[in-house]
Write a structure and sequence with these properties.
Elements: E1 15-28, H1 37-44, E2 53-66, H2 76-91, E3 94-95, H3 115-126, E4 132-140, E5 143-147, E6 154-166, H4 175-182, E7 191-203, H5 215-230, E8 233-234, H6 235-238, H7 249-266, E9 270-279, E10 282-287
Parallel strand pairs: 1-3, 6-8
Antiparallel strand pairs: 1-2, 2-4, 4-5, 5-6, 6-7, 7-9, 9-10
Helix pairs in contact: 5-7
Bound molecules: zinc ion (2 copies).
Length: 307
């Protein structure tokens, strides 16, 4: 008598994206030999100070593929081995300027080991071994770079915050009508939030500085145009734009996007995304370059939570 074994297929053939996190600590210094000490200091600020400074880097590797007969996209031990051999064992506790040849700036083709340059170099090493679809590298919780494999499109995000009050109400409606729409948020004297703002810029990486744009210029723009005017204000009353526009998270994110797009273009990058988080429970995202929702899948925002 023959026994018919049913063969479980374990979702074989269907596709999935998996992620793996890895950490390393490393130091670097932003210094170009063709520039004077003053020019290095002016361009790179404290990052130019010898002998350098360090970060606890966090790398998130996203890999895509179809599920095999074991129910996996990839065997995790192979993933761990590739990331360890190719990346963390080479970078952990090292001075990045002296690790990989592309960061040797005594060579005219070398570039500085910025976060955006480093994530591209990591991609080139991992893509030989793993089906990488996206990489994110955190230099610190408020600065990270994403790379999706297109040399022209590197992404750099800086995170900042401001505290502000607002009231959600349309001026042409009665209090009771506003409360029907906005609930407690329409109460007459307002309420406040500690807003988190993530500004993502896109661009190609400069072959020498390793940067998408001048980071300190970007930080200055965000401080001058967003944080300084919005921080410790009642948005409806203190920001003229919100006199006639309800300051919902969506509208604030769009207003920030409109304020920053031109100035960011002027420093050589493109504003890609503004993400405004109003509370741990809600956030609004504006894709400044793609008005339609034909957006790249967001890699991993929820994988690692940074407070
Ligand atoms: Zn640094
Ligand atoms: Zn609110």
């Amino acid at each position: 008598m023959s026994v018919i074994k049913s063969k479980a297929r374990h979702m074989q053939g269907r596709t999935c994206v998996i992620t793996r996190r890895a950490c390393f600590s490393a130091s670097h210094r932003y210094w170009l030999p063709e520039l004077s000490s003053d020019d290095n200091a002016a361009l790179f600020g404290p990052c130019s100070i010898a002998p350098g400074h360090g970060h606890n880097y966090e790398l998130i590797v996203s890999m895509g593929g179809s599920i095999n007969e074991d129910g996996m996209v990839l065997n995790l031990s192979d993933v761990k081995h590739a990331i360890h051999t190719e990346i963390t064992s080479q970078l952990d506790f090292r001075f990045l300027n002296e690790t990989w040849p592309e960061f040797d700036v005594s060579n005219p083709n070398g570039c500085l080991p910025t976060t955006e340059a480093l994530v591209c170099s990591i991609w080139k090493r991992l893509i030989i071994h793993l089906p990488v679809v996206a990489l994110r590298l955190y230099e610190q919780p408020n600065l990270w770079s994403d790379y999706l494999g297109n040399a022209m499109d590197s992404f750099l995000t800086i995170r900042t915050h401001f505290a502000a009050a607002h009231r959600l109400a349309r001026t042409e409606l009665s209090q009771s009508e506003n409360e029907k729409i906005y609930g407690k948020c329409a109460r007459p004297n307002g309420h406040g939030h500690n807003y988190l703002v993530d500004i993502t810029v896109r661009g190609s990486i400069d072959k020498r500085t390793g940067m998408i744009c001048d980071l300190s210029a970007l930080q200055r723009l965000v401080d001058d145009l967003v944080v300084e005017p919005f921080d410790h204000t009642f948005l409806n009353k203190d920001i003229p734009f919100f006199a006639n526009c309800v300051p919902t998270a969506e509208n604030i994110a769009l207003h920030i996007s409109d304020k920053l797009a031109g100035p960011i273009q002027a420093i050589g990058a493109h504003l890609h995304k503004v993400r405004l988080q109003e509370s741990p429970n809600n956030a609004a995202e504006v894709y400044a370059e793609t008005p339609k929702l034909d957006i790249q899948p967001e890699s991993l925002v929820t994988v690692v939570s940074h407070q």
